[in-house]
Please model this.
Amino acid sequence: MRQALRQAGSRFWLRDARAPVVVCGPVQGPRDEDGLVRLDIRIEDGRIAALAPAGTAHEGVRLDGGQVWPGFVDGHTHLDKGHIWPRRRNPTGDFAGAIAAATQDRAAWTEADIEARFDWGLRAAYAHGTMAIRTHLESDDVRNPQSWRVFARLRDRWAGRITLQASSIAPLDRFAGEDGTMLADLVARTGAALGMVTRLTGGVHEALPAEFQPMLDNFFALAEARGLDLDLHVDESGESGARALREIALTALRRGFKGRIQCGHCCALSVQPEAFAVETIRLCAEAGIGIIVLPMCNMYLQDRRAGRTPRWRGVTLVHEFEAAGVPVSLASDNCRDPFYAYGDHDMVEVYCESTRTLHLDHPVDAWPRAVGATPARAMGLEKAGLIEVGAAADLVLMRARTMSEFLSRPQGDRTVLRAGRILDAVPPDWRELDPVVGAPP
Model:
């Protein structure tokens, strides 16, 4: 198949493919019990020119019923913090340990160190088939925004390969006073989203302090004055007092906020009383809030106690959000840092682990959109994450035919097409990071 793709030129058919019907434009053909439709895809000059029922094309590259997915969109990452695990482990594996270890490591960052790790992460994501990423950038020290300078360089360097967006990340109280204004101005100049975590400096996600609402209104006002979207880390704990999501939705409604709002994690909602959770979800739907779920990181950190088996999965109420019409995305979050010791910026892994963790099957339904079209809309990328006529032929081809086959192997033999051309990129070697994070003993 790969040899045929290399010889296909700029105009050819992909024959006998399967694709999730929820990411496809109009095409005739039955939908199987996995939610897959069988089709032929015409590619001309880097774009999708036609979608037709399987058997329409009589020549082209045969996929033998293998799956085709649109290029992936990873809407919540931490590329400036990635891959520091070899030099800065999380001694306890919990959220407090992650904050302490990451803070200690950040004190010694240089731009060269950030750039080496950041670029390594982009190369891994690119080889795996990701075409757009939003990364949160450490923003505690707005007077020396190293991560933002690195981001600007890499965004330009990677233009045309990965669409790269940024969001700030800092505790909510950091947005008060002059530093808060400076940070909001930096975000606006960069074309980023204004982001924060719903905890105060030195704290964790627990009961909201008395000053929470005035600080939240100030945060919204900073965004409104600059026309910024919001991207928030919310209620990342199993504490029933962590109820910021409801206050964010109420604040957005009261203020008539016009921008996009994306809230990540929202773990505490799954330990709230049922009536409170239902009301919070209703408010999120009314306010137009999107939810982005990071199951691998949350399962790693949440409900971790030494010598005790975790009692809950640490994730939010995804099925209830989806049923209420709230857009739900899946993302990779942290990779090989104190918040998650593993990960490779691979959205196939994210989708597979999310399915197992969150029961995104029986039926599969619309969940394939959660790693493409849904996060793309949250990022303002209206045409990304879909297989439709006129879209760029940025596709991921897999030998797996059914969802059982897809979910049973890492799909390490996938083929990535960018603008209809086979991508020869491979994930970078771990050894390339040894000069900045250290080699194994």
